[in-house]
Amino acid sequence: MEPHLYLAAEATSSTSRTLTITLFLIFVAITLGITIWASRQTKTATDFYAGGRSFSGFQNGMAIGGDYMSAASFLGIAGLIALYGYDGFLYSIGFLVAWLVALLLVAEFLRNSGRYTMADVLAFRMRQRPVRTAASVSTIVVSIFYLIAQMVGAGALVSLLLGIKPGTTFLGMDADTAKIATIILVGALMIVYVVVGGMKGTTYVQIVKAFMLMTGALLMVLLVLAHYKFNLSSLLGDAAEQSGKGSAFLEPGLRYGVETAGDAAKTFYSKMDLLSLGIALVLGTAGLPHILTRFYTVPTSKIARKSVLWAIGIIGTFYLFTLALGFGAAALVGGKAITAQDKAGNTAAPQLAQALGIDYFGGDTGGAVLLAIIAAVAFATILAVVAGLTLASSSSVAHDFYASVMKRGQASERDEVRVARISAFIIGAVAILLSIFAQSLNVAFLVALAFAVAASGNLPAILYSLFWKRFNTSGALWAIYGGLLSAVVLVFFSPVVSGSPTAMFPDSDWHWFPLSNPGIISIPIGFLCGWIGTVISKETDADKYAELEVRSLTGFGAH
Amino acid sequence: MTTETTPTEKYLEVQRSDEFAGLRRKLRNFIFPVTVAFFLWYALYVLLSAYARGFMSVKLIGNINVALLLGLLQFVSTFVIAWYYSRFAAREIDPTADKIREDLTAGAAARGAATPAARADDAPETDTEAAK
User: Fold this and answer.
1) Distance (Å, rounded) from C-alpha A384 to C-alpha A371?
2) A258 vs B: CB within 8 A
3) B61 touches chain A (CB under 8 A)
4) I need a labelling partner for A41 at 20 to 30 A (CA). Which of A32, B13, B46, B126 fits?
């Protein structure tokens, strides 16, 4: 196979484009059908927020995978490995090991003592209104950052996946119009899934997506490995050779922790950044609101445990796949062809699909077919993730802010669900607007920022809540706001926002914080704030802690 | 209500019982050390990636080097810990937790509560759903 395949000759491009759109529409039709079916099953608040707590361990494990494996995982990690080799793998490992925190320290206790949202556990033995407000703020901030990153990503992908080149048009749209149209379409669909289908509809969308993603990725992995007669070493060797970087391609250091000769400070900060990223990845997952709410969709904590075990199996397998996809793309497509399509490497996986299709399934048509399948999978991936995010944030607005803070717990169940639906609509609309404004900016760092905020604010509050008797309202507020603010402020003054060529605002410079990822500083600040906030307040409620401890460990009185 | 023990006293009583204390100790003695262990093991891997490039680039079999092997071992350790924890929980934790829960549920029913969830739940929402 020639290593300089470019995406899409004109004829291939139009076959592939039609097929991508057809497959995507089939996915949309199926998922909308499921959503309407789910809406008929959605009667109570428990149905809307937690899918009636009726999912099995395997179903919820698949849905967790569908919620978690974003386009950043599928396209982003495969692209990073394709361009920078080994360093892309670091992301996969951090994203996977993170699940042990969720399994051992969070999932079962949360399922036993909470009801619909993260705040149910945080506010369990605290003063309801301030803690729920804080949890709601943090949930919305994390979810909106994550949403914008996904939606802008979808916009950027559409012209690449549909092959709309600058100067050409598609259905009368040029590349820029197509971007905006995609953002609006993705946003509108996610609003429909959440408003109409609630947690039940959203969960099935995520299950279908996880199945499609795993199947598509497995097919490509088998084709890549078959090409190398299932010899991993020769795949790696070929990837290293094609990359032009030799064996350095298979070693750490091309992307993270880069050593700059003669510049000790730069080398030091680059290595600190690597450590910071590593910590944020592993501690962020168990503080992501859209992941936490998934544990409420199963009947008991034992099934919550089972669903995390399934999720670890599915997610782990998928990240092993990305290794073969990334190195496969490096070897069979080549770094030059990938960066010619997209500087960040996000099209490595679709380009690999095309190359494999041409190789195995009869020339250009085969290439177009496989490309179309993988492109449709990528869109399905984005849709399932944004729906999960919208649901988690609208649940928090309705259940935490509206019902507990505004109505002081006096809202009826019907009102609460009505508010949740309205909030999903508003959050979706805001996310669409912000994404359209942000589409020309580099927002790739927003996912990392969402993880950093989750690890610095939410995780300390959750762990202290569950395991520290003395913890109180003041501690919870200090942990959440302290962690949130330190992460956001450090990123605002970091080189990802200003003062570097790849920054969000490359032409200005107000940065003084040297790292791109704030985790290594902001996570300890979050834990420290939680401790300080606790000890400066006299409040402590041994009775409620006894209740929380007994309930979280035994499942007595669980919803 | 004319019962001798309020729900809060009941929780305090359970929390102080040897049975519950044993359950909590067993669980914490597992999850905390294992969390520290896997975090250090992961941190070691990240630190080696940052500072021990020479060691990481040693080739073992063909093009498979130490870095790749250690990365794959992180996958293996994650799978093994997850499997080991589920076995531990099923054998050592679940039976005791189930027993304490059943005792509490029976006690709550004997005191004439409508549902254990309604009794145990101080959440401000109106509670219309039964315990699931």
Assistant:
1) 20
2) no
3) yes
4) B126
Per-residue model confidence (pLDDT) at position A13: 65
Burial of B118 (0-12, 13-18, 19+ CB in 10 A): middle
Cβ of residue B17 closer than 8 Å to a chain A Cβ: no
- CB contact residues (below 8 A), chain A span 93-132, against chain B: 93-94, 96-97, 99-101, 103-105, 115, 120, 128
Q: CA of B4 to nearest chain A CA: how many angstroms apart? A: 17
Of A472, A410, A539, A537, the residue nearest A123 (C-alpha): A472
Q: Does B80 lie at the interface with A, CB-CB under 8 angstroms?
A: no
User: For chain B, what is the total number of helices (H) and then of strands (E)?
Assistant: 6, 2
Tokens of A116: 């619909």
What is the model's pLDDT at position A5?
Answer: 45
A215 touches chain B (CB under 8 A): no
3-class state of residue A342 by DSSP: coil
Tell me which of B29 and A347 has the higher pLDDT. B29
Residues pairing with B64 in the sheet? B61
Q: Is there a contact between A276 and A515 (Cβ–Cβ < 8 Å)?
A: yes
Angle between helices A57-68 and A175-227 (to 10 degrees): 120
DSSP state of A6: P
pLDDT value of position B126: 38
In the numeric block, which tokens belong to residue A469? 């008797």
Q: Which two tokens stand for residue B99?
A: 């027993």
Size of interface A-B (CB pairs under 8 A): 195
Residue B4 has pLDDT above 60, yes or no: no
Q: Which residue of B has its CA nearest to A101?
A: B35
DSSP readout, chain B? ---SS-HHHHHHHHHHSHHHHHHHHHHHHHHHHHHHHHHHHHHHHHHHHHH-HHHHT-EEETTEEHHHHHHHHHHHHHHHHHHHHHHHIIIIIHHHHHHHHHHHHHHHHHTT-S-HHHHH---SS---SPP-
User: Do residues A556 and B116 lie in contact, with contact meaning Cβ atoms separated by under 8 Å?
Assistant: yes
Averages of pLDDT over each 10 residues, chain A, 559 residues = 44 72 88 93 92 95 94 85 91 94 96 95 94 96 92 80 72 81 91 94 94 95 95 94 90 88 88 92 94 96 96 96 95 91 85 91 83 87 92 94 90 92 95 89 81 95 96 96 96 91 88 93 97 95 93 93
Interface predicted TM-score of the whole assembly (ipTM), two decimals: 0.92
Decide if A543 touches B, using CB distance below 8 A.
Answer: yes
